[in-house]
Amino acid sequence: MRGAAILLVLWLVSGGTAWADAPRATWRIPTDPVRVGDRIEVTLEVVHGPGAVVDWGDAWSITGLELTAQVVLPTEGADGDRQVSRRRFSLYADLPGDYTLPGTVLTVSGPGGEREVTVAEKVVSAAGVFDPEHPPAEPAPARDTVPMPFPWGQLAALVLAFGGLAAAGVWAMRRRTQGAVSSVPPAPVYRPPAHRVALDRLKQLERSNPDPRATVLAISDIVRSYLAEGFGIDAPTQTSIETGIRISEQGNPILGRVTGWLIRWDLVRFARGEPSRQEAVQTLLEVRDWVRETAPDAPPAVGETA
After folding, report:
1. 119-162 per-position pLDDT tens digit
2. 207 and 113, same structural domain?
3. Distance CA 84, CA 89 (A)
4. Cα separation, 173 vs 255, whole angstroms
5. Is residue 167 part of a domain?
6. Cα–Cα distance between 37 and 40 in angstroms, integer?
């Protein structure tokens, strides 16, 4: 009877230790609101017993988000004799919406052998300008203002100082005019029109013949630069939605044809789509015709037919 009691105590102690050493894993996401264009820092955290090592596996990818960096941080101490290992991910969202951080199973190796720990999925939201689920916060009400006397003395000092500077400037200009000699103005620098630059870049891309995905991404960059230089639309720094709004404000249906293309190319860039060779070639031909349609009336360059 006494031996059975001793065995029971030993079993409870070993079971309690195993339960205390059982690893736990969870995603840590930002507490502040995330908007499109922000860098999103998320951390996968595993709490385990001392001396244990986490097998993180190969490099990760997260669907819908651009993964710019991932790093395994040094193991640190946690509560009691526990330790915590972390893997940090730097992400970027180009479109608003809810993005799911994946669930997986990790292996933790320690003095007591290997154990598996399950990581549950977690959702991180990125709000955009037109996201109805994340409207902008209401501005704070204006506070009551306290009347202040008009600073007549400061105004008089500023007028005198400005008058003195103006007089000094007039005197300096007269001296400069009297002693100046005639000079030949510099020749203007020739800048080719935006549509000519875009067509030349498309021709170079066609000659280099990269893989289909690289071709589509290069075409996207060429179109965004053409919109900026030819129509004053800051497409290289805008999202596709913002660029589409600026295009619609110009009321040009031919120019507006590119809006759907930009969104489709974003899927190749951020969702890791893989277009075929035929799709890449067809895209290049369509964009070349579109640039010629939207270009101002001008005679074709030497060696090229309209």
Report:
1. 888 888 878 655 555 555 565 565 555 566 767 777 778 888 88
2. no
3. 16
4. 48
5. no
6. 9
